[in-house]
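In response to reviewer comment 3 from the previous cycle, which asked for concrete evidence that the modeling workflow produces usable outputs, we include below a single protein chain processed end to end. The sequence was submitted unchanged, and the resulting C-alpha cells are shown without manual editing.
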Amino acid sequence: MNYIELINQFWQVRRSKRITSLQADVYFTLLNECNLRGWENPFEISNKLICATIGISEPSLIDSRNRLQQIGLIEFQNGKRNSQSPVYYLNNLSRNRTIGLVEPLVTSLDETELSAEPFNKLNKTKKNKTSLPESPVGEAEVPASKIIDLYNEICKNLPPVKILTEKRRKAINARLREHGYENVVKMLQMASKSNFLAGQSQRGFIADFDWLFKPENFAKTLEDKYNDNRYKPASQGTVVNGKDSNVAYLEGAYERLTQQP
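The workflow returned the following C-alpha cells.
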C-alpha cells in the first residue's frame, strides 16, 4: 500500500459513489496521518485533532467518517474508554485488503463500479433509509449537522442550537429537498441581517432555528420579507430639532391639548 495507490483508489470510487468535499477532507486527513506515521495501519487519532486540522465540528466529522466507512474506504472503532482515541484503518480495495473492523459495503473495484454512467443508473439497490436526501438542483448530500454549524456561525444574533434532534434533522432534510443547499444558506444570511427577527421590534419577537425551518417561515425569510425596511427596530427613529421623533411627537400632542380653549 502506498500514497499514490490510495489516492487513485479514492478518485476511482468517487466516480460511482457520492462523496462530499467535507468527506474527502476527512479521508485525506486520515491518509496524510497514516503516511506521517510510516504507514502504521491501523492507527489511533483523536477527534479533536482531525477537527482542528480541517476546521470542522465533531458532529460533522462523525457524519463524514460514517459515510466513508459505509462505502468501504475506511474502517474505524471508537475508543473503549473516554481516554482512548478512535482506531482507523485505510482499506485497499483493489487488493481486497480489510481487517474486519466492520463489513464494508464495497469489497472490490470492478468495471461496473468504475464506469462513467450516471450515479442513479449504477445504484440499482434500494437506498439506505438513513441516507441524506439530495436537493432538487442536484446538490451533493449535505449532513444536517453542517446546516446546524452554518446557522450557529451565520445567525449569531439568534439563539444558538446545541442539540441536533431528530425533529430538526427531518426539518433540515425537508428544506434541502424543497429549496436546495444554496437557498438554505441564503435564508440563513437573510435571517442574520434582520433586526426584526433578532427581537428589535415593538413585539420583541425573537426567531430561533425551529421557527426559521418551518416551511412558511423559511419561504418568507428567503424572500426577504423580514428586512429592516419593513420592520424598523423599536429604538430606531429620526431626530427632530435634537430630539427623538417619538419624543417630539408626544410633546407636540401634549401642547396641542393644553392650548385648546
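The longest strand covers residues 74-77. We consider this sufficient to address the reviewer's concern, and the full set will be provided in the supplementary archive.
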